Amino acid sequence: MTELTFALLKYGFLILLWVFVWLAVRSLYKDIESFSPRPSRARRRKNRRALKAASAPVAPVMTASEPAQSNLPFGAGPTLLVIIDGPLAGSSVPLGNEAITLGRAASNTVVLDDEFVSSHHARLYRDQASGQWVIEDLGSTNGTVVGEQRLGAPVILPAGLPVRIGATTFELR
User: Fold this and answer.
1) Vertex 53, ends 145 and 30: CA angle to 5°?
2) pTM of the full predicted structure?
3) Are 97 and 67 in contact (CB under 8 A)?
4) Which residue numbers in the chain have pLDDT < 50?
């Protein structure tokens, strides 16, 4: 075997080995990314476009000094926040005129013991003008998912629409 043939085989084998390593690392990265609670850039971009295209009306943001009062008669609309999936599955919180906060901190109305939930994750309150329930993400790291879309602004939450915060899913009934 000539030196040239031996050198070509040696470098060809090295190139083939590096291509194999690159493919293995790329495959592992894609597998890890698919199980990550944080969506990939492409999925985030797609979700952002879908959220902008959604026709969900944006509710006005209330300040803490404004009390949450309803113009609807008692019994109209949802009366319970029901946790349907997660560590607190099966529990419920009655909906009154007060805002409901969700998060890891003990000061929240609903305390969610989950590493993917922020200390003050989201707030659920009754809109003064329409009397409907509105959900607002409080700047959480991992976000709040309403239906299949990540929440970007406060939106009116109809009864029966699932909301996911970390491992917990709830809906209004």
Assistant:
1) 55
2) 0.56
3) yes
4) 54-75
